[in-house]
Amino acid sequence: MHQNYINGQWVGCEESLENRNPSDLTDLIGQYASGSAADLDQAAQAAAQAVPAWGLSNPQVRADALERIGAAILSRKGEFGHMLAREEGKTLPEAIGETVRAAQIFKFFAQETLRIAGDAIDSVRPDVDVMVTREPVGVVGVITPWNFPIAIPAWKIAPALCYGNCVVFKPAELTPGTAHLLAQIIAEAELPVGVFNLVMGAGSVVGQAMVEHPLIDAISFTGSVPVGRALAVEAARGLKKVQLEMGGKNPMVVMDDADMPLAIEACLNGAFYSTGQRCTASSRLIVHRAVYDDFCDRLVTAAAALKVGHALGAGTQIGPVVSEKQLRSNLAYVDLAREEGAEVFGGEQINAPTEGFFQRPAIFRNAQNSMRISQEEIFGPCASVIAADDFDHALALANDTAFGLSSGICTGSLKYAREFRRKSTAGMVMVNLPTAGVDYHVPFGGRRGSSLGSREQGRYAAEFYTSVKTSYVFAG
């Protein structure tokens, strides 16, 4: 059994979870520890004991450690990519690409460790100096999802360690293998005992214990909206700092002046790559009526040509859905699309040479923005195509959602691009690019039901992982 990592030791537990390949259910990846509240307590205590020394450590020490972690991930990108594709279902090229990004994130924050800035400000009183500095929050609980099992842990753990915090990490139950590999590398990076801890297990057990634990000072969570809302309420009782990244129902507007091949590729990528299992996926395609029929015809043809298959297979473009539960949910939305009056192209389950959770991309033509298929996050390879009368109508439809993570527009007009960028109510806006796909050195996050708290990634990560201290010194 693959064990948890607590207080510098690999620790077993009574319960375990089976990890199987969604591309081939006969492929048992391994048994992984399923921790308890007691395991979480041990990890939290170990992290709390390590906080004073790590928080005051020389920034070069932290920078060197993060650089070692990044370099080690990069040197083992093939191993990580293979594990990620095997347990999550992302195609091998995508899985390796995600691994490289994780390494880049650790390397970025290695350098940020040496750039933690403060302010020296003149006081309004004579002979008084004012200094504003940033200090670590303390113990950070990290809860991550299954769809980016190394990139998202990286962009939470790296800044936490960079700014002098200690970490208790709970990965998703569906993707423990990638998390365990990452923990192995961090365990070998010569961090002081207790600075990093891995506790795998059920969210209802380990996650709940984390939210309730008095030694956890802050929680960074990426996952579903219902869990995020419940977590925020519980964390408020303990006055914990909270950062939530949740769902999305992201619009991609296609104007009548768009470069059509570019628009088709952007929508195909945003809606269906990574099996649509991205919070930034383009799940609402809002298309000008003048080009609606042409766009739909081209998109249906392009989607039907995508190769769906084993994540490790040569030439596979779309891997399996991550689990049977997720597949059943996706198929239920395909049925709902028909019930709501949309014309459905694709979306059926596929029989493959191996037993797995394969689904053809689904396009819901003649969808309305008010339909459930256009308002609820499906988190699968499904996209509604909605007609818009003009730019203003398209913008209004794009903003008519409970979410606000990412949005996009395909247009040849600088005016439309500028107006959309200014008036879109999403946290991230893409012009002639897919809604999915972001850089690691700039802020990530949204509004409304998509995000709560400070932005992730880049220098903006300091807002969550540090606390500001103002010091006054009388020099008279």
> CATH superfamily of the largest domain, please?
Aldehyde Dehydrogenase, Chain A, domain 1
E-strand count: 20
Total number of helices: 15
Overall shape: globular
Low-confidence stretches: none
Radius of gyration: 23 Å
Q: Whole-Å distance between the termini?
A: 64 Å
Strand content: 15-25%
With strands numbered from the N-terminus, the spatial order across the biggest sheet is 14-15-16-13-12-17-18
**CATH class descriptor name of the largest domain:** Alpha Beta
Q: What's the pLDDT, averaged over the residues? A: 97
Q: What's the CATH topology name of the largest domain?
A: Aldehyde Dehydrogenase, Chain A, domain 1
Specify the structural class: alpha/beta
- Helix content class: 25-40%
Major β-sheet profile: 7 strands, mixed
Which second-level CATH architecture of the largest domain applies? Answer: 3-Layer(aba) Sandwich
Q: Domains counted in the coordinates: how many?
A: 2
